[in-house]
Design brief:
- It is a single chain.
- This protein is α+β, with helices and mostly antiparallel strands.
- The protein has one helix at residues 25-43, and strands at 2-8, 16-22.
- It has a two-stranded antiparallel sheet.
- The radius of gyration is 14 Å and the shape is flat.
Length: 65
């Protein structure tokens, strides 16, 4: 189970911030090991030229719980 958020900057309308919140490490692991590969098998790689630069990934831990 995850919550997905997509935002667009007000300064550059072609720049987006996408983040996902997973309920557990196991849910994230499943997403990375099962969901993403299944999606790529079904739909193929990202089309050439759709991204101006590769996406950047970073992990955070919730410290408010």
């Amino acid at each position: 189970t995850a919550v997905f958020h997509l935002h667009r900057t007000t300064k550059e309308p072609v720049v987006f911030l996408w983040y996902e919140v997973f309920e557990s490490q196991a849910a994230l692991d499943n997403h990375l090991k099962v969901v993403i590969p299944a999606f790529q098998t079904e739909f193929g790689p990202t089309p050439e030229g759709i991204l101006a630069r590769p996406s950047e990934s970073e992990s955070y831990r919730n410290i408010s719980k």
